[in-house]
Amino acid sequence: xxxxxxxxxxxxxxxxxxxxxxxxxxxxxxxxxxxxxxxxxxxxxxxxxxxxxxxxxxxxxxxxxxxxxxxxxxxxxxxxxxxxxxxxxxxxxxxxxxxxxxxxxxxxxxxxxxxxxxxxxxxxxxxxxxxxxxxxxxxxxxxxxxxxxxxxxxxxxxxxxxxxxxxxxxxxxxxxxxxxxxxxxxxxxxxxxxxxxxxxxxxxxxxxxxxxxxxxxxxxxxxxxxxxxxxxxxxxxxxxxxxxxxxxxxxxxxxxxxxxxxxxxxxxxxxxxxxxxxxxxxxxxxxxxxxxxxxxxxxx
Length: 300
Fold this sequence. Notes:
The chain is mainly alpha-helical.
């Protein structure tokens, strides 16, 4: 009699997968049952709160301090355009400039050049130099501002880097400096050459007058020379009151000897007929008596 097959009750084990028993005669096969898993993303519960906090956060202190008031525009300077017959002395008198022609020259040296006696019609002069631009208003400092701390840290770091730079970095430049200075001093300065005619005499006289601070322009000197001597440096007046008194007027600008000696410009010839000495002494006298040779339009 055939023996009856005995079936064992399957034992349950704590596993993550289920087992299915399939009987095949006397043997039992255990087959895994894999249940499909459905993965789902968990909702981010904190997202709405983060967005709300970000929207309510105050603006950065750096952005708040970035807006500053624009500086006020400086007052426009008054100007004057030079016309024929003008000189710095005459302009200073007409416009009531308290510092005189010297102050006017200092304010316009870049436009006039090194010779204050040589100004040309059409030149625009500044009568009152514009004041410096006002500094922009400083924003109120916020306590603990991150930008301010960062700026201070950066400056400190740059200072440390500069102080840490080896002193030998500039050795070559320092050594070369004396040699370069010596080369500059050794180079001869070429003297300006002036023509030996009326134009050259006036221009050389203007250069000497500029060094001595004597006002006058090319046009003013030329105009008076043509009236007094027609450009003849040997001209002499033997008929006027000065001649009668024994001191005739001589030279390009018809200067009498007492005036020439009183207003002679050092460095020029002591010869009254010398064109340069005659012009500079006459202009020195005119500056003392009339403010400038440019203001002389007749016998003086």
